[in-house]
């Protein structure tokens, strides 16, 4: 069993200058799926205090525009901890342009365009294990006192 640190090393919030009051809270949850005798699957989420390799974790970021002004060009970046593998398809959010990094957050690309150096300059498509950071850029205006949730799923190695 592995204990999972619930603190991410980095969350970056970048917005227009008038949005300095934007705040965010991070939560790390463990996904628990159960199948009823009739075959229905239910999913619930609990605090990720102890996670076993192979279990799914949700990294969730709740944000709110605390300012009196609307926010445009909001950018939020979250690292993918080294002890997990990103779950493809879990980071897309309505109203956000999602991009990914495989180089520690230096450059970001749409998922299909994300490449890694496989061997001496031979570039190949990045696998989910190669993703180190996820970035969301808002395509919408976030009004005063409006809130939202960004999240992605990963599996503990």
Describe the structure concisely.
By secondary structure, this protein is an all-beta fold.
Report on the architecture of this protein.
The N terminus is likely disordered. The protein is built from no helices and eleven strands. The strands form three sheets. The protein has a five-stranded antiparallel β-sheet with strand order 3-2-4-11-6, with no helix packed on it. A four-stranded antiparallel β-sheet has the order 1-5-10-7, with no helix packed on it. Strands 8-9 form a two-stranded antiparallel sheet. The protein is mainly beta. This is DUF11 domain-containing protein. It comes from Algimonas arctica. Keywords: Signal.
Q: What is the helix tally? A: 0
Structural class: mainly beta
Compressed to H and E, one letter per element, the order equals EEEEEEEEEEE
Return Rg in Å: 17 Å
Percent range for β-strand residues: over 45%
Mean pLDDT: 86
Protein name: DUF11 domain-containing protein
Signal peptide: 1-21
Keywords: Signal
Organism: Algimonas arctica
Features:
157 residues, 4-stranded antiparallel β-sheet, 11 strands
Write the layout of secondary structure elements.
Elements: E1 12-14, E2 22-35, E3 41-47, E4 56-65, E5 75-79, E6 84-86, E7 96-101, E8 115-119, E9 122-125, E10 133-138, E11 147-156
Antiparallel strand pairs: 1-5, 2-3, 2-4, 4-11, 5-10, 6-11, 7-10, 8-9
């Amino acid at each position: 069993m592995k204990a999972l640190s619930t603190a991410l090393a980095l969350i970056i919030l970048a917005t227009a200058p008038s949005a300095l009051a934007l705040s965010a809270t991070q939560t790390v949850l463990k996904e628990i799926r159960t199948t009823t005798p009739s075959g229905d699957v239910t999913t619930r989420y609990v605090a990720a205090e102890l996670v076993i390799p192979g279990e799914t974790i949700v990294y969730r970021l709740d944000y709110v525009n605390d300012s009196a002004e609307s926010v445009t060009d909001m950018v939020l970046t979250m690292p993918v901890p080294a002890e997990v593998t990103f779950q493809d398809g879990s980071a897309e959010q309505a109203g956000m342009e999602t991009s990914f990094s495989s180089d520690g957050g230096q450059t970001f690309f749409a998922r299909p365009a994300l490449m890694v150096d496989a061997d001496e300059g031979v570039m190949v498509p990045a696998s989910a294990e190669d993703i180190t950071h996820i970035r969301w850029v808002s395509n919408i205006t976030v009004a005063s006192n409006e809130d939202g949730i960004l999240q992605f799923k990963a599996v503990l190695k």
